Every structure is written in structure tokens, then in C-alpha cells.
């Protein structure tokens, strides 16, 4: 073979991938232009040629992110909702056109479908969760999501949830004893810190029959701290475009730390599963457990073809439920207690209802039958979840073209539901910044669109554990209000934190007074 032939072969060898790269970039840019044209059917803020609309976002400023406070970002969401109450376009750089939905009429068209979460290359946030949660129920799509949803639904049946009431009460006993110490020492209670430990203990016992006793350690639990670190890492990654590329992020200092923490939380899940495997291998007749837990359902689940979940699928679901099952509930509980402390008139009404239910009892334990009687407390919980929804934004990738108000949103476009924006949309909720539990009285809420209140999302991909969460919140709050009066610590400022969920920066501090 002569030299010229060698050059030709080498040239062809190099040309093929170059042509492939050029064609791929051309196809990508054609898709970007198509999606851009589609979302521009809606109004939106001024666009930058590169940053899109990101330059308006306060969190793009590294100094704001370094502060750890997200108040300006939340204010920005509310301001956009006021300017564009139906919806508006968003651009995370010029390459990622999106539609932000703020109104039930638009949101309904998105959430009534079972479209997947945005986990493809270049999709921020959810894609960044994959190394942590895998393709568990939160991130799975298509047939896999449908199969796993069917397999996991029995874990939240009435008969499964009912025995958990005893566990809720036992774990709240520990929390109340800790609160007694704060009262005796005249110290303010750091609400989110101790509530998070309580919800983690509850989840580990109800879902996995694990006694972690993390509440008794009186310090930050390593798992709770790991979840916080992962949340902060993902928020930071969203606003650093170069870190969208996995190979760049994995070699960065931030990426190395992120994957180390992922290994730790995976180890927690693996230990939970391993302990159950050992328990199943050596059955004991003297077992005190009298209920099925989430892990029992996972291990025993079989689809129509008799196939169960693989070990990796089980770990993904365990990781997902560990995160979603304790952290979202802790957020909801934290802000509910904050609202009661801030609005004492509503706290007193809720306490009166609880006292009436518990009258002439020898125990303060909440019974299953009590939950349906807590009508006023339920109104307050719903209003707190409206004002402070734990999940502020929900995202979907449109799988098939959808027509909305005469406009066509094509397949492949990312649609975001601003839960916080919806719940503070002045065209949906009058006096949206005021705490008014009466909004949820039957005669008032029946006038509202079902998609106007979405703390647990809606449609086929709604939160599978919402009944578990609501029951837990009722028991925890009722037990606390039965024993204590709550007031805000006037020396402590309350801010939003930069985390995946809506949580307070530097916690919320409450003063306690003993009622009985």
C-alpha cells in the first residue's frame, strides 16, 4: 500500500465521525429552532442570545448561591406569575426552550398525561438525580414506569397504612420528649432539624422495619445531611452550564464529592435491603412485627409474567422512597408548625378540635378513626401546603403533540409546572399571601379547578404516597399541638433555602409553652 492510499484511508477514517458530528449538531439545532418557535407562542421575559432567560434568575449570580438563601429566586417566580398568569416561555441558555405553566387551564393539559420526567442529556435537575435515585418511580418512564407503578401501588393500600398509626405515635413520643427538654432549658426548637429526624425514623420503621433511633442522637443524622448535600450540589450544577456535560462534572471537584455522597446513600439502601434478605433467610416465629412494610411489597411484587424486581430496581425504589418519603413530609410539617406559630388564632382552633377528639381518654395516642375527625386541622394542613408546597416545580417532556388554547406544543418540548407560582397566582387564589384555611371548606374548594392545588401533583404520575404523608402529618401535628403552644422566636429570621425542596435556610426556630 503506497503512502497516498494510506492518507486517503486515514482521511476517510477521520471524516466519518466528523460528518456524523456535523449531522448530529445540525439535527439538534433544527430541533432547538422548532421548539423555540413553539414556546414563543407564549409571552415571556426578555431573552439573552446565550443565556436565554437565565440572566434574569437571581440564582445565576454565584454570590447569591453562596449565600444559601433563595428568597430572591422565590420572589422572581411570584413576579413572573403575576406578569404571566397563564404561562410563559423560559430558556435555560438558548439551547433549552421550555414552557412554564402557572394556571390550571394550562397545567391540566400537561399533568393529565403520563409523559416522562426530563432525564435526557442536557436536561438539568432530573437528569442530575439519576446517579442518586436511578430509574425508580420518580424518574422511570414508559412501560417501566407503568409496570413499577402497578407493582408498588399495593404498598399504599388502606390495610397496609392502618397499622402505621402506632409507629407514628411511638416516634412522636420521642420527639415530644426532646421538645420537653427545649422547654425546660428555655431554648428555641430548631423545627426542621428535629422534624426531619422524626420523619426519617418513621419512614425507616414503616417502610423498612428498621430501628435507626436517629432521633435519640440529638445531632444531624449522616443520611439527612447527605440528602442536603446532594440537593445543594444539584442546585449548583443547574446554574453551571459546563457541568451539564457528565464527563466534565465527574472530573470536577464538585462532581467527585457528589458521587462520593451518592455512594454513601446507596450504601444505606443496600444495608436496608441486605438486612431484609437476612431476615427472610432465617425466619423467626417470635417476630414482633405484625404489619407488611414497603420492602415486603417490593420483594414479593410480581408482574403479569411472574417477574419480580431486580436487586438494582429494588435499590432504586428504596433510594427514591427514602428521599421522597421523609424529606417532603419534613418540609410540609416544618411550614405547618411555622404557620401555627405565626397565626395563633388558627393554632387555637386546631387545638380545640384535637382536645375535643381526645377528651376523656387515658392516652394521647391518635387512633386511625381519629384522622377523619380532624377536619379543621386538615384545612390548615392544606392551606400550609398551598402556601409552601414542598416541591416548587414539576417537569415533563411532552411525548406527543398537544394543543393548548389553539397553540400546538410539539413532542420533545419540556413543560414545567410552577407549583409555587400556581399556588400564589392572584388569578387563581385571592389574597394568595394570606393564610386562610377556610379556602378548603367543601363549599369553597368545590368552586376551584381540581388542578389549582397540587402539593402532590396530579394525574397518572401523582404522588403515590400522599395518603401516607397526610396521615403522618396529622398525627405528628396533633400530638404536638395537644402538648404545646407554639410561638415564633422573634430573634430568628426566616428565609428560603437553596435546596431541591422548599425548606428554610438556617431552620425555623419556635418557642414552646406547655399546655398540659
- Which topology does CATH recognise? Cytochrome p450
Give the beta-strand count.
Answer: 11
User: Unreliable runs, pLDDT <50, ≥5 residues?
Assistant: none
Give the structural class. alpha+beta
Averaging pLDDT over every residue, what do you get? Answer: 90
Tally of domains: 1
β-strand amount: 5-15%
- The helix count comes to 20
The share of residues in helices is: 40-55%
Shape: globular
Please state how the strands of the largest beta sheet are arranged side by side: 1-2-7-4
Largest sheet: 4 strands, mixed
Distance between the termini: 97 Å
Detailed description of the structure:
It contains 20 helices and eleven strands. By secondary structure, the protein is an alpha+beta fold. The strands form four sheets. It has a four-stranded mixed β-sheet with strand order 1-2-7-4. A three-stranded antiparallel β-sheet has the order 3-11-8. Strands 5-6 form a two-stranded antiparallel sheet. It has a single domain, classed as Cytochrome p450 (Orthogonal Bundle), CATH 1.10.630. The chain is 53% helix and 8% strand. The chain starts with a helix and ends with a strand.
Amino acid at each position: 500500500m503506497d503512502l497516498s492510499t494510506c492518507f486517503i484511508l486515514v482521511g476517510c477514517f477521520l471524516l466519518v465521525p466528523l460528518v456524523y458530528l456535523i449531522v448530529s449538531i445540525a439535527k439538534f439545532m433544527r430541533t432547538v429552532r422548532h421548539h423555540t418557535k413553539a414556546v414563543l407562542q407564549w409571552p415571556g421575559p426578555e431573552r439573552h442570545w446565550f443565556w436565554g432567560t437565565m440572566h434574569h434568575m437571581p440564582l445565576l449570580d454565584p454570590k447569591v448561591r453562596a449565600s444559601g438563601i433563595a428568597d430572591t429566586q422565590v420572589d422572581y417566580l411570584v413576579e413572573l406569575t403575576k406578569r404571566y398568569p397563564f404561562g410563559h416561555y423560559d430558556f435555560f441558555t438558548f439551547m433549552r426552550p421550555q414552557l412554564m405553566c402557572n394556571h390550571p387551564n394550562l397545567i391540566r393539559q400537561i399533568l393529565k398525561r403520563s409523559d416522562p420526567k426530563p432525564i435526557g442529556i442536557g436536561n438539568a435537575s432530573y437528569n442530575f438525580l439519576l446517579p442518586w435515585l436511578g430509574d425508580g418511580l420518580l424518574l422511570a418512564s414508559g412501560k417501566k414506569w407503568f409496570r413499577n407503578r402497578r407493582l408498588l401501588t399495593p404498598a399504599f393500600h388502606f390495610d397496609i397504612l392502618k397499622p402505621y398509626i402506632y409507629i407514628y405515635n411511638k416516634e412522636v413520643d420521642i420527639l415530644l420528649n426532646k421538645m420537653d427538654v427545649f422547654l425546660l432549658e428555655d431554648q428555641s426548637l430548631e423545627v426542621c432539624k428535629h422534624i426531619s429526624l422524626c420523619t426519617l425514623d418513621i419512614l425507616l420503621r414503616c417502610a423498612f422495619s428498621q430501628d435507626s433511633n436517629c432521633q435519640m442522637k440529638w445531632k444531624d443524622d449522616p443520611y439527612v445531611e447527605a440528602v442536603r448535600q446532594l440537593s445543594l450540589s444539584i442546585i449548583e450544577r443547574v446554574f453551571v452550564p459546563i457541568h451539564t456535560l457528565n464527563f466534565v462534572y465527574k472530573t470536577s471537584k464538585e462532581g467527585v464529592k457528589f458521587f462520593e455522597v451518592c455512594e454513601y446513600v446507596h450504601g444505606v439502601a443496600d444495608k436496608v435491603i441486605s438486612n431484609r434478605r437476612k431476615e427472610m433467610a432465617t425466619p423467626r416465629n417470635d417476630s414482633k412485627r405484625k404489619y407488611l412494610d414497603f420492602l415486603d411489597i417490593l420483594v414479593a411484587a410480581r408482574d403479569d409474567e411472574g417477574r419480580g424486581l431486580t436487586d438494582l430496581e429494588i435499590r432504586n425504589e428504596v433510594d427514591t422512597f427514602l428521599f421522597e418519603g421523609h424529606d417532603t413530609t419534613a418540609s410540609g410539617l416544618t411550614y405547618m408548625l411555622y404557620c401555627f406559630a405565626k397565626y395563633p388564632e388558627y393554632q387555637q382552633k386546631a387545638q380545640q378540635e384535637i382536645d375535643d377528639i381526645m377528651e376523656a381518654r387515658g392516652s394521647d395516642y391518635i387512633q386511625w378513626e381519629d384522622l377523619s375527625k380532624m377536619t379543621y386541622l386538615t384545612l390548615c394542613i392544606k392551606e400550609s401546603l398551598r402556601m409552601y408546597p414542598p416541591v416548587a416545580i414539576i417537569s415533563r417532556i411532552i411525548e406527543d403533540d398537544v394543543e393548548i388554547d389553539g397553540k400546538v406544543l410539539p413532542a420533545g418540548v419540556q413543560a414545567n409546572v410552577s407549583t409555587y407560582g400556581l399556588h400564589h397566582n392572584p388569578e387563581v387564589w385571592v389574597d394568595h399571601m394570606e393564610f386562610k384555611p377556610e379556602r378548603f371548606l367543601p363549599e369553597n374548594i368545590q368552586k376551584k379547578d381540581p388542578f389549582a392545588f397540587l402539593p402532590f401533583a396530579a394525574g397518572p404520575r401523582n404522588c403515590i404516597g400522599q395518603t401516607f404523608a397526610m396521615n403522618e402529618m396529622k398525627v405528628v401535628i396533633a400530638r404536638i399541638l395537644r402538648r404545646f403552644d407554639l410561638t415564633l422566636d422573634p430573634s430568628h429570621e426566616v428565609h428560603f433555602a437553596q435546596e431541591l425542596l422548599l425548606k428554610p435556610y438556617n431552620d425555623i426556630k419556635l418557642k414552646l409553652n406547655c399546655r398540659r
